[in-house]
Amino acid sequence: MALENGAKYERKYLAHYIDAAFNSTTPNYTRLGKDLEEYSIALNPEVETKTNILGESSTNVKGYAPQGSVSTYYAYKGDPLYTQLKKIIDERLTGNGVQTTVVDVVVDDEGNVESAYRENAVVVPQSIGGSDGIQIPFEIYYVGERTKGTFDVSKKTFTADTAS
C-alpha cells in the first residue's frame, strides 16, 4: 500500500549509500545503517545577516558545508567499506585516497525511488578499536558536484539525469 498524502515517512525510507570502491571506475555502493541507530546530514549553512542604517535586516545564505557522522560502524569480514576504511587507517591515506561518492535516496513504502542525489565526499575515520567488536567511527564531508538522478536499489547503481 503506497503512502498517502499527509502520511509521515519512516526513517528507513531515507537511505544513504557510500561508494566503497573509492576512486574506482566501477562504484560499489553499500548502504549505511547496520548497527547505526542514528544518522543525519548536518547542512552547516553559512548565513550572513546584515542590518542597514534604516534598521532593515537582510539575510543571505552563502553556502553549505554538509557533514555526517557515522558514530557506530562495526567491521564485518568481507564488507568492502570495512576494507577501504582499514586501508585509510593502515596507510594513513589523504587526498584522493579518502575521496568517494555518496548517494542519498528517498524511497516510498513500496521501494520506489522518489529522489536520488549523488555527491562527492571525503571519508575520514576517527578511530579504530572499541570493546564490542572492531569499531571505526568516521565522518563524511560532502564536498560538492551534487547531481540529481535515479538509483536502482536492487543493482545499487546511480544514473545521472540528462541535461534538458
TL;DR?
The chain has 164 residues and is mainly beta.
CATH fold label: Pnp Oxidase, Chain A
Give the averaged pLDDT, no decimals: 93
Query: What order do the SSEs take from the amino end to the carboxyl end, as H and E?
Result: EEEEEEHEEEE
Unreliable parts: none
Radius of gyration: 19 Å
The top-level CATH class is Mainly Beta
Number of domains: 1
Helix content: under 10%
Structural class: mainly beta
Q: Strand content of the residues, in percent? A: 35-45%
Based on DSSP secondary structure assignment, what is the total number of beta strands?
A: 10
What's the shape? Answer: globular
Word description of this protein:
The model has no long low-confidence stretch (mean pLDDT 93). This protein has one domain: Pnp Oxidase, Chain A. The two termini are 33 Å apart. The chain has 1 helix and 10 strands. The strands form 2 sheets. Strands 1, 2, 3, 6, 7, 8, 9 and 10 form an 8-stranded antiparallel beta sheet that branches. The chain has a two-stranded antiparallel sheet with strand order 4-5. The protein is globular and about 65 Å long. By secondary structure, the protein is mainly β. Strand 4 (45-51) and strand 5 form a beta hairpin. Helices cover 7% and strands 43% of the residues.
